[in-house]
């Protein structure tokens, strides 16, 4: 039972299902907005701090390591003590991290800021999806895709705003303290929500970690999550820098790569939410992984700005489904209501989201970003193998 005396989501006074659903959507906008604060001005950050591709690539895992630890901790503890204060408190930590990053002027200070932001975002990553699954048990796949569509929509909008601001001479650090305000407000909204209580029925018994690790489906699903999230993270992190470096474009034009990729992901997630009513999730994900591998291969092989932008669009459409669909598959076929399970899968995704961009940065030091991005189609092809391995092993985890 939750020690925070969480209130009912189904009745009584105050905010309920709609409030928490809207707040979860808003938290995805905050999450994606923090990503664009680094990815869009990445070239300017490198020039300002005099760091190369490898050091820039290290910014992704510096955030992701803390994000993974906080995600796993929040998922484990929320199954036992409730979600309210982890969600609200996490965004307060994000606000503090944003303020710190805006004030620092050194590379080590930037790394510390990324780590603080990652720590605060962990509860959002680990708990927003199981919260939505709990609020909408009859439409998990659809609602999960809608939730994550807000993440990609936030990427598209924030990347364009950041590109415009940079082209008008705004320093890259200026946006960080501005973003702290909505982060704090959404944290307060989570704290004000009405959550499930014992009056709505007993809370499911916490799922032991050892039972999850013993599941035959967990490991291939975790591998697929890491690989596909790594591909998503790579295009999110490197697309503006890729366009600026390969085509000599401005910061605004560079932001178009991330904007069209994120906009395509938004469309893809809404479309996937509808398609899941008619097509099995494993079959859909395998087909999209193969199509995405072909699309992203064009980034490395074709030297054309228009073709590159088209590849980002097709890549976004194909990559959109994986994170929400893998979580939905685990919820519906392995264990419903387990924040621990979804947090563990999210940690695998976080590892890929931060680690693969670093690999691309290291490869770019040797052969340039165009060669480094060959890792993306290779990762998607490897994900096909993992998804096929998982599809025959999905079964409820013993409770």
Give a written overview of the molecule.
With 399 residues, the chain is mostly helical. It has one domain (17-391): MFS general substrate transporter like domains (Growth Hormone, Chain: A, Up-down Bundle). The chain contains 16 helices and no strands. Helix 3 (53-81) runs antiparallel to helix 14, helix 6 (140-167) packs antiparallel against helix 10 (251-275) and helix 9 (218-247) packs antiparallel against helix 16 (375-391). The radius of gyration is 20 Å and the shape is globular. The two termini are 17 Å apart. The model is unreliable at 1-15 (pLDDT under 50).
Provide tags for this entry.
16 helices; 0% strand; mainly alpha; Growth Hormone, Chain: A; 399 residues; disordered N terminus
Write the layout of secondary structure elements.
Blueprint (H helix, E strand, L loop, with lengths): L16 H23 L2 H8 L3 H29 L2 H20 L3 H29 L4 H28 L7 H18 L16 H6 L3 H30 L3 H25 L5 H21 L3 H15 L2 H12 L5 H29 L1 H4 L2 H17 L8
Helix pairs in contact: 1-5, 1-6, 1-7, 1-9, 3-5, 3-14, 4-5, 4-7, 5-6, 5-14, 6-10, 6-13, 9-10, 9-12, 9-13, 9-14, 9-16, 10-12, 11-12, 11-16, 13-14
Q: Rough shape?
A: globular
Percent strand: under 5%
Q: What's the main sheet like?
A: none
* N-to-C order of helices and strands: HHHHHHHHHHHHHHHH
User: What is the name of the CATH topology?
Assistant: Growth Hormone, Chain: A
Oligomer: single chain
Q: pLDDT below 50 for ≥5 consecutive residues: which ranges?
A: 1-15
Treating each run of at least 4 consecutive H or I residues as one helix, how many helices? 16
CATH superfamily: MFS general substrate transporter like domains
Number of domains: 1
Class inferred from helices and paired strands: mainly alpha
CATH class category: Mainly Alpha
Rg (C-alpha, Å): 20 Å
What is the helix content? Answer: over 70%
CATH architecture: Up-down Bundle
Overall pLDDT confidence = 85
How far apart the termini lie comes to 17 Å
> Strand tally, please?
0
């Amino acid at each position: 039972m939750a020690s925070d005396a969480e209130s009912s989501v189904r009745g009584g006074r105050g905010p309920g299902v709609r409030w928490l659903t809207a707040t979860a959507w808003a938290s995805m906008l905050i999450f994606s907005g923090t990503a664009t604060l680094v990815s869009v001005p990445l070239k300017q950050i490198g020039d300002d701090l005099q760091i190369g591709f490898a050091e820039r690539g290290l910014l992704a895992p510096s955030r992701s390591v803390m994000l993974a630890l906080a995600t796993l901790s929040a998922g484990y503890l929320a199954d036992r003590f409730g979600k309210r204060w982890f969600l609200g408190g996490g965004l307060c930590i994000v606000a503090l991290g944003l303020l710190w990053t805006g004030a620092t002027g050194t590379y080590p200070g930037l790394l510390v800021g990324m780590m603080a932001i990652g720590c605060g975002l962990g509860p959002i990553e680990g708990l927003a999806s199981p919260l939505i699954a709990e609020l909408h048990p009859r439409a998990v796949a659809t609602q999960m895709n809608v939730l994550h569509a807000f993440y990609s929509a936030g990427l598209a909008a924030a990347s364009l705003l950041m590109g415009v601001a940079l082209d008008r001479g705004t320093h890259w650090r200026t946006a960080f303290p501005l973003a702290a305000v909505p982060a704090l407000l959404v944290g307060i909204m989570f704290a004000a929500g009405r959550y499930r209580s014992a009056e709505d029925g007993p809370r499911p018994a916490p799922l032991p970690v050892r039972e999850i690790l013993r599941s035959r489906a967990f490991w291939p699903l975790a591998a697929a999550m890491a690989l596909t999230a790594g591909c998503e993270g790579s295009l999110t992190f490197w697309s503006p820098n890729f366009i600026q470096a390969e085509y000599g474009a401005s910061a605004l034009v560079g932001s178009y790569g991330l904007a069209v990729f994120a906009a395509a992901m938004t469309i893809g997630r809404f479309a996937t939410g509808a398609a899941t009513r008619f097509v099995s999730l494993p079959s859909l994900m395998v087909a999209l992984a193969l199509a995405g591998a072909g699309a992203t291969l064009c980034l490395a092989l074709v030297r054309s700005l228009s073709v590159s932008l088209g590849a980002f669009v097709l890549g976004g459409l194909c990559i959109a489904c994986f994170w929400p669909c893998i979580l939905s598959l685990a919820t519906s076929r392995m264990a419903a209501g387990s924040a621990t399970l979804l947090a563990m899968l999210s940690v695998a995704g976080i590892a890929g989201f931060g680690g693969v961009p670093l690999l691309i940065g290291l490869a770019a030091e040797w052969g340039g970003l165009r060669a480094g991005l060959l890792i993306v189609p290779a990762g998607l092809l490897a994900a096909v193998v993992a998804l096929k391995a998982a599809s025959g092993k999905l079964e409820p985890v013993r409770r």
